[in-house]
């Protein structure tokens, strides 16, 4: 009865019949093979896979490989396949072209796969699109190299919350971005132990360890592909559309798989937690939120969604703001205690302690102009510099703007929790995470996926979907242009940006030909 009050749907579990395990495995295998065959038969899936193959080929460049890879003497693999020429001149141009064309093909395939007029997005397209880059160097970010170094620190019995990659000299430290070589880890204890586990598979190869960080990311996207459509269907949203807008989103393939970011695990676990809560499994959902937070602390905001679903499940809730406030505080304390207790247990099991708390300021050392508060503060600082003001004055705008942004973000999250969570817990969770992104001092493109993917499980109008498509194309273009600048071929990046703009305009014209109605039609109960 509880899960019916939460989402208005029922689920039934097939009982396990003794002796039927082998037949169930065969059935799952046959379904997987059939699903792969259907996915491969889609022309747009093959186009996207071709695009990612070109991206993989274009990744053999200074934009993504560790520093000094092409310097003489070059890396052993580069020398073995005589690829030294890719590090300069015509080679850089070629890899940049491959990268830009590949991402353009992926974006084009994604836009054409939009599930309208009866079209269904193939369920395993994300897997086939991921395969070509599984062995490529980390894409559009060097975080995976830091993950490998942090895993190596733990393998040497050092505290990753106290020392940085500098303390594991050699290949593991050399491939880390110089900005982060002396900084300790800000990540949750579970994330660090997963990194340790991956490094233990390849203890003597820093580069392979970094590439292998895609394994947990791939599993996370698989979990996301399972949970997000089901969460959407429980709230009357098309699971196929949620799969297309969320899981098949080019930013997911680009950053979660390509960049091997640990954020993928956090987002997948948050989505699973909301799915469990929607089924009335509130305690297990809170525990799942804690596990997600032990990977990346941002996941604690999903508690807003769990509390919202607990309110929806409460049949004796009296009307009025006062009663709602008391109920929210009660549920917040109960489920907050579960989250804290589970997080403490995970921390104890990992044996890494709470050293991440003082390290939360580590990412802020990077000045991210994508962050609105940091951008505003930097603009004011520049004007003060131009005006000839002393350093004691122009050094203040950035920290002041960042502080104002954080306070405004906190107020926004409180408002979302109060006004939105009781009515739409999934939207409230997405909104809280997006508010944090917009108000925080640092913003990377993959941060938008924290809450952006959950929007795929919310009923949206065609206008809102177009906005999400626009944001997706903007940040895909940003990543491509950023890589071309690193490769010293910025003109090609500008060309890619112009193509993306033209493609977006064509997609908008096609979308406007359709009725401007909610595109996320209610899923049938049998879906």
TrEMBL record:
A Pfam entry, by short name: MptA_B_family
Source taxon at top rank: Bacteria
Topology with respect to the bilayer: Multi-pass membrane protein
The keyword Transmembrane helix is assigned to this record: yes
Localisation per UniProt entry: Membrane
Main localization category: membrane
Keywords: Glycosyltransferase, Membrane, Transferase, Transmembrane, Transmembrane helix
Keyword Transferase belongs to the record: yes
InterPro entries: MptA/B-like
Transmembrane segments: 48-65, 85-111, 123-140, 206-229, 241-258, 264-293, 333-357, 399-418, 425-447, 467-500
Family to which the UniProt record says this protein belongs: Belongs to the MptA/B family.
Record protein name field: Alpha-(1->6)-mannopyranosyltransferase A
UniProt source species: Terrabacter terrae
């Amino acid at each position: 009865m509880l899960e019916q009050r939460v989402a208005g749907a029922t689920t039934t579990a097939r009982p396990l019949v003794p002796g039927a395990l082998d037949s169930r495995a065969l059935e799952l295998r046959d379904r997987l093979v059939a699903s792969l065959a259907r996915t491969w038969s889609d022309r747009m899936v093959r186009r996207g896979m071709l695009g990612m193959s070109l991206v993989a080929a274009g990744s053999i460049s200074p934009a993504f490989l560790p520093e000094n890879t092409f310097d003489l003497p070059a890396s052993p693999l580069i020398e073995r396949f005589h690829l030294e020429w890719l590090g300069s001149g015509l080679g850089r141009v070629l890899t940049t072209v491959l990268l830009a064309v590949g991402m353009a093909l992926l974006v084009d395939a994604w836009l054409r796969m939009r599930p309208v007029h009866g079209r269904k997005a193939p369920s395993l397209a994300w897997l086939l699109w991921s395969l070509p880059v599984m062995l490529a160097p980390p894409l559009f970010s060097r975080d995976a190299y830091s993950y490998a170094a942090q895993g190596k620190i733990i393998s040497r019995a050092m505290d990753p919350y106290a020392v940085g990659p500098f303390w594991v000299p050699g290949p593991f430290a050399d491939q880390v971005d110089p900005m982060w070589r002396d900084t300790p880890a800000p990540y949750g204890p579970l994330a660090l132990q997963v990194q340790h586990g991956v490094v233990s598979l390849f203890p003597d190869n820093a580069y392979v360890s970094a590439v292998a960080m895609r394994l947990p990311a791939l599993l996370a996207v698989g979990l996301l592909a399972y949970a997000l459509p089901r969460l959407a269907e429980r709230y009357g949203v098309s699971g196929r559309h949620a799969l297309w807008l969320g899981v098949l989103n080019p930013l997911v393939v680009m950053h979660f798989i390509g960049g091997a970011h640990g954020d993928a695990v956090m987002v997948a676990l948050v989505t699973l937690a909301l799915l469990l809560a929607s089924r009335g499994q509130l305690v297990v959902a809170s525990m799942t939120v804690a596990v997600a937070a032990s990977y990346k602390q941002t996941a604690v905001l999903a508690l807003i969604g769990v509390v919202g679903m607990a309110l929806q499940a409460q049949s004796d809730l009296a009307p009025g703001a006062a009663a709602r406030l008391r109920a929210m505080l009660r549920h917040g304390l109960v489920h907050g205690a579960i989250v804290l207790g589970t997080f403490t247990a995970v921390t104890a099991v990992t044996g890494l302690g709470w050293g991440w708390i003082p390290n939360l300021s580590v990412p802020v050392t990077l000045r991210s102009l994508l962050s609105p508060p940091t951008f505003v503060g930097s603009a004011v600082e520049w004007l003060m510099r131009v005006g000839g003001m002393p350093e004691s004055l122009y050094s203040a705008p950035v920290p002041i703007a960042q502080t104002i942004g954080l306070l405004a973000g906190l107020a926004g999250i409180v408002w979302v929790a109060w006004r939105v969570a009781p009515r739409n817990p999934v939207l409230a969770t997405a909104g809280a995470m997006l508010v944090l992104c917009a108000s925080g001092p640092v913003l990377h493109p993959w941060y938008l996926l924290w809450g952006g993917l959950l929007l795929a499980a919310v009923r949206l109008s065609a206008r809102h979907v177009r906005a999400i498509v626009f944001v997706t194309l903007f940040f895909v273009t940003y990543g491509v242009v950023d890589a071309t600048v690193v490769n010293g071929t910025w003109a090609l990046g500008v060309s890619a940006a112009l193509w993306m703009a033209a493609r977006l305009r064509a997609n908008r014209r096609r979308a406007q030909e359709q009725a401007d109605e909610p595109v996320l039609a209610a899923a049938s109960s049998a879906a």
